[in-house]
Design a protein that fits this description.
By secondary structure, the chain is an alpha/beta fold. Helices cover 43% and strands 20% of the residues. The protein has an eight-stranded mixed sheet, with helices on both faces.
Amino acid sequence: MKLAVQLDFDGTVTEEDVSFLLLDKFVGDSWRPYLEQYSNGKISVAVFNKKVFGMVKADEKTMTDFVLNSPRVKTRRGLWEFFDYCKRKDIKVIIVSNGLVFYIEAILKKKGISGIEIHAAENRFSPDGMKVRYIGPDGKEVDSGFKEAYTDMLVKEGYQVFYVGDGNSDIFSARKAKYICATLDLLKRCEKEDLNWSPFEDFLDVLKELRYVDLER
């Protein structure tokens, strides 16, 4: 059995949503009406991020320094041990996130974690506002269905998917996964839909569940 772990990032790898922290810092409150529209399903995640990060005029160094030095940007306990186990056991790991590539890479580098496949919003810094876009497995820009497109890719490649996430946007991939570790809003959705899930507080919990699954291979 080929096993792949698909990881969300904000609120899953990190304790808080890093993109929201960045928007609060560099935009203020003017981005939040768009969050309400996104939460209510009126706009897609791609439209949401294009609009709100288009308000960000800060350069890459300024934003990266904030991410790396903010006391609120914390990863969940056991992250390094989790990645080390996957590497030793030849378990494929991909991060598929609605967040932005630049801060995901910066946070992982700070934790001494490298070589992880990352799919998130590509970003280009500009004094006129940041430009972002999502690219699917086929190399084309996508407006919605980003996370589940990569789940479909993994399934098509013959992997059984072990999904780890926290948010409402994770439910679409979780429905297609063989195994699910969930917290916060995703946990509630999994409960409601009676999916096969396990709760987690940190990556030591995730690693415990992954070991059980790995023994079945």
